[in-house]
Design goal:
The chain has a domain at 25-49. The chain is elongated. It has 49 residues and is mainly α. It is 73% helix and 0% strand. It has two helices and no strands.
Length: 49
């Protein structure tokens, strides 16, 4: 799932405000986690060399 792309034009507007806030913070957390994960993988690749 690409957290940067919405698959629904109506989805966000149909959600309750609280749900949009939670979903927004979860998307940010997931994106930051994936970025950190890629850096740690890169570091592991360097350590093996």
């Amino acid at each position: 799932m690409d957290v940067g792309i919405s698959v629904s034009r109506v989805g966000g507007n149909a959600q309750l405000r609280a749900m949009r806030q939670v979903a927004g913070s979860l998307k940010l957390d997931l994106a930051q986690y994936r970025e950190l994960e890629s850096f740690t993988q890169f570091g592991a690749d360097l350590d093996e060399a």
